[in-house]
């Protein structure tokens, strides 16, 4: 696991050196946790029916990830490597409990819709993956940057998928109708012209297909990412 | 009230862990390159779900739930004066149970069933962080199954559903290697789309009615519309 050699670094570097900036910008596209590393899909897809849920989910993940990475990084020399997974799980689980209690207190209806998926942040592979791959062998500050970068890389895909699904699936953004009123008998806006919502977009499988298309577009733009089967 | 068998069938088909809730996607996508590894991981998931969900069920009903500590002292019960509600601890307790059971199961299997260990070996540790296991526990808590038998049949059904999903995806991926997929879609992209299409196929099980009919008024409207609106309602919940 984390060997001491890995930790040896240049003595002093500016707060936002090029290397530190890359920690934030890399996961946004070229090393995106969802589309490239394939981590954290479990909870990502199920809550992308509406932008609001996706937004709160993203906020929760950013919070858990930043503090989790910070704590793991601070404790990295104290955690025996044999039990590190359990220690990490306990750290994430405590942070997720805090998030869950806050969501229940301040946005109860969102919390109800997210239901078990808040709890599933615990087993969100991105978080464990970053703990293992980064926080266990790096200093606190770069760990925070890494967490911010990866969490935002996760968040923007989540919100984008939710936006596509909500706009085409229910004709709304954040619960506000954008194409007019679609109540039967009193249609207005686009619906009066015969536009119909694509109910298919609300179904779970469409989340996978939307992400598949995003991956397709991303890899068409950046040929280096193309896989050999 | 749903019967135990209903819960079992529902967990395999309509409420399939992968296609309806996307649980355990990470390992599902990563380990489905060949049928052999898919079978290994699938069996491990069934096994661990069947062991951990009943454990968590007992924990939930005798420790965590509001008023569950009645057996300790009647005062702590729902009607007592000092009701205790430990449900906020459920995440940490469930994950601790899952992680330790996985460790324990790994040691036991290694000792007593070396052939099984050979087959499941590397997959067992992976499972501690597989969303479908914790997801199983959390759904069990959310749906409040009335007996431990129901919870177990839910766990077994979910495991089998997961197994079917990963093995069929692995089989498709083995064959897809011979087809001409657009370069940018190769690998991950096409896997996502295939899973999506499989999910759509699995949605056709939504029309199956279990036990009693849920809502009599939806039956009067014609076929397709009922299904879609029911599905959408189900998802919105």
Automatic annotation (TrEMBL), chain A:
Its EC number is 7.2.1.1. Keywords: Cell inner membrane, Cell membrane, Ion transport, Membrane, NAD, Sodium, Sodium transport, Translocase, Transmembrane, Transmembrane helix, Transport, Ubiquinone. GO terms for biological process: sodium ion transport. GO terms for molecular function: oxidoreductase activity, acting on NAD(P)H, quinone or similar compound as acceptor. InterPro entries: NqrD (IPR011292), NqrDE/RnfAE (IPR003667). NCBIfam families: nqrD (TIGR01939), PRK09292.1 (NF006777). This is Na(+)-translocating NADH-quinone reductase subunit D.
From TrEMBL, chain B:
One of its GO terms (molecular function) is oxidoreductase activity, acting on NAD(P)H, quinone or similar compound as acceptor. One of its GO terms (cellular component) is endomembrane system. The chain crosses the membrane at residues 12-31, 37-59, 86-105, 117-139, 151-172, 184-208. The keyword Cytoplasm does not apply. The keyword Transport applies. Pfam families: Rnf-Nqr. InterPro entries: NqrDE/RnfAE (IPR003667), NqrDE/RnfAE_oxidrdctase (IPR050133), NqrE (IPR010967). It is a multi-pass membrane protein. It is found in: Cell membrane; Endomembrane system. The gene is nqrE. It catalyses: a ubiquinone + n Na(+)(in) + NADH + H(+) = a ubiquinol + n Na(+)(out) + NAD(+). It comes from the Bacteria. Belongs to the NqrDE/RnfAE family. GO terms for biological process: respiratory electron transport chain; sodium ion transport. This is Na(+)-translocating NADH-quinone reductase subunit E. Composed of six subunits; NqrA, NqrB, NqrC, NqrD, NqrE and NqrF. NQR complex catalyzes the reduction of ubiquinone-1 to ubiquinol by two successive reactions, coupled with the transport of Na(+) ions from the cytoplasm to the periplasm. NqrA to NqrE are probably involved in the second step, the conversion of ubisemiquinone to ubiquinol. Keywords: Cell inner membrane, Cell membrane, Ion transport, Membrane, NAD, Oxidoreductase, Sodium, Sodium transport, Translocase, Transmembrane, Transmembrane helix, Transport, Ubiquinone. Its EC number is 7.2.1.1. Its main location: membrane.
């Amino acid at each position: 696991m984390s060997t001491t050699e890995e930790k040896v670094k240049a003595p002093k570097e500016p707060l936002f050196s090029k290397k530190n900036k890359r920690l934030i910008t890399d996961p946004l596209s070229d090393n995106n946790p969802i589309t490239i590393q394939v981590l954290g899909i479990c909870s990502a897809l199920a809550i992308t029916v509406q932008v609001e849920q996706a937004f709160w989910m993203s906020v929760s993940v950013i919070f858990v990830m930043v503090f989790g990475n910070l704590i793991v990084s601070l404790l990295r020399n104290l955690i025996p490597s044999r039990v590190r997974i359990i220690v990490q799980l306990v750290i994430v689980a405590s942070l997720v409990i805090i998030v869950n209690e806050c969501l229940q207190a301040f946005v109860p209806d969102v919390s109800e819709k997210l239901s078990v998926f808040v709890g599933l942040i615990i087993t969100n592979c991105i978080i464990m993956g970053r703990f293992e791959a980064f926080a266990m062998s790096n200093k606190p500050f770069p760990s925070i940057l890494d967490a911010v970068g990866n969490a935002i890389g996760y968040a923007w895909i989540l919100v984008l998928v939710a936006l596509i699904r909500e706009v085409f699936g229910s004709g709304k953004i954040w619960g506000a109708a954008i194409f007019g009123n679609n109540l039967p008998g009193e249609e207005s806006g686009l619906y009066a012209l015969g536009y119909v919502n694509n109910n298919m977009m609300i179904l779970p499988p469409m989340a996978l297909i939307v992400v598949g298309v995003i991956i397709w577009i991303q890899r068409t733009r950046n040929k280096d990412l193309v896989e050999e089967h | 009230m749903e019967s135990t068998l209903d819960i079992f069938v529902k967990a395999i088909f309509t409420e399939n862990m992968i296609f309806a809730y996307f649980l355990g996607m990470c390992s599902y996508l990563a380990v489905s390159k060949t049928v052999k590894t898919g079978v290994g991981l699938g069996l491990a998931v069934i096994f661990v779900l069947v062991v951990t969900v009943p454990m968590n069920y007992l924990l939930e009903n005798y420790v965590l739930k509001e008023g569950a500590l009645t057996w300790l002292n009647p005062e702590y019960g729902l009607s007592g004066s000092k009701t205790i509600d430990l449900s906020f601890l459920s995440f940490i307790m469930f994950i601790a149970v899952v992680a330790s059971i996985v460790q324990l199961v790994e040691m036991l299997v290694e000792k007593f069933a070396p052939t099984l260990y050979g087959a499941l070996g590397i997959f067992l540790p992976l499972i501690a962080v597989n969303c479908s296991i914790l997801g199983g526990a959390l759904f069990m808590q959310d749906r409040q199954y009335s007996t431990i038998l129901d919870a177990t049949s839910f766990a077994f059904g979910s495991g089998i559903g997961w197994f079917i999903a990963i093995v069929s995806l692995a089989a498709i991926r083995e064959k897809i290697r011979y087809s001409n997929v657009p370069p940018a879609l190769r690998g991950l992209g096409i896997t996502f789309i295939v899973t999506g299409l499989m999910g759509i196929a699995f949605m056709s099980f939504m029309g199956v009615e279990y036990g009693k009919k849920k809502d009599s008024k939806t039956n009067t409207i014609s076929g397709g519309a009922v299904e879609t609106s029911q599905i959408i309602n189900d998802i919105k919940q």
